[in-house]
## 1
Amino acid sequence: MDERAELAEQFDRARGHLRAVAFRMLGSADEADDALQEAWLRADRAGADGVANLTGWLTTIVGRVCLDVLRARKRRPEDPSDLAELVTVPDAADPEGEAVLADSVGLALLVVLDRLGPAERVAFVLHDLFAVPFAEIGEIVGRSPAAAKKLASRARARVQGAAAVPVDDLGRQREVVEAFLAASRAGDLDGLLAVLAPDVVRRDGATVMRGAGRVARETLTNGGLARVARPALVDGAVGLVVAPRGRLLLVLRVEVRDGRVAAFTAVKDPDALSRVDLAVLDA
């Protein structure tokens, strides 16, 4: 077997690992596949002669490709209207299984990762999720190993966040928010009425709605949003991120009082969303 054929075979064996790395870095199955194609072209041009750890070398190449994609993405912000269209697309229509991939990683994690700078995201994903040494990460992002370690540390702090309430209170909040989400997804009016306070307040921009009955019926009209919503730490409390395929569309700030949802506010404006502090509940 010649060197190029052997490299192609090794690349194919490592494809699952490399695609997992690329997806966690980019949050898009299509972009991950494109990154793998570019990584193969770069690997093929460079050749693997003398490479002792081929999977590690290929991971480094994928990391560099993804860093380029993330930097380009920062220069081309996503249009929120494009994300809104994704809510109406059923998972079964997704031939790449992107929704399944996003769920396997965690939609809330993808949302938080999307808020990191490109170098921070690369450092966190490679080190914390795939145990790549900081010396190799430093080469990818053009920093020293110590600087790469700081990038990952800053990213980790943002992913983990800080709760504004004690752990026990956070757990009770989460139970209520998850019950609200489950009833919303199931179209369960009685379940919603059980979890909403009688005088619950729903705010959506300038629109304010009051009363469990009205709010519950309105909530049931948003089944598509509920399908792509996941619990997250929102400004230090349990709330919801609505993120089709891991891309943030809106946030629900939820106020829990006496074991029920007392109020919730939809945050949709891109500028307002950028000021919301988001973190992963299970980090």
## 2
Amino acid sequence: MKTLTNRLLTAVLTVTAITTLAACATSDGADANTLTVAFVVDPSWAQIPVAQQDGLFEKHGVHVKVVNFPSGVEALQALAAHQVDVATAADVPAAATLTRSPSLRVVADGSRWQGSRIVARRSAGITSLESLAGRSIGTPLGTSAAYFAAKALSDKGIEADLVQVAPQATLTAATQHNVDAVSIFQPYQAQVIAALGDDAVQLPGGSYNQHSLYLSSDTVVSQKPASLSAFFAALNEASTALSTRADSAIAAIAAATQLAPDLLQKILPEFDYTIQLQPDLAANLTSLGTWAKAQGKIDQSTQLPNYDSLLVTTFLPRVG
């Protein structure tokens, strides 16, 4: 039933995104006080549903239209096509997309997730990273989850097979033993752990922590600066509610992600929801872009951009 629910949810999100974008695609004459935001349905960007529920966008004077997307790849495609004003995406797909869409800009680092794990089955005889040698690990290739798994294995000198599994198919792949382990981002990681129960083995590894970014385009940056500043002021206020894990914040995220409130109480402490954009993110994106080239996700002849020039800190709330 959970698998069917996930598939239906993904289908609904995709259809909803396409339908909504057809109705509210951005244009040069778009309302300067309105932002259309591509929201990947993931606790990594939990500020958005919290800000919606608490009326924080209205409080800060910006009208926000939220369009749900199943992954950052699709959200970035919509942004590059000027169908949305802001997109959410993890650092790995963002690093690759910025090589193909130089007009895009990173305008905030919304959260850092420190809870990445490779989730294996105890019944498969896996108890450590070392026991993954020669095993199959299901993951959406080219994503932050795949990067985490590849780096965790590489740091230990372990060779295993990374197998393409779409995010919405991860639960099935794990529970039906199609793979020996999975590496996936939230909310799917939590769902896999819950479904496997006592058979789940959570394997940490490597030094990579996912950066969950907000991106926009150079056009929106120049035409809607006040709206972007108001948007991030609202998200910054939502971050405060997230830091205290207020009941209203948990309810908003649960409604947006279809995750149980008690499960969210467990996974939200894994995130640092401080809205920021540190200079060292550029070096991280360069490393991720280099990895993407090695994986064939970026053409070998492509020159990586100067990521530092694509970071725009103008719209972030001032601290202190």
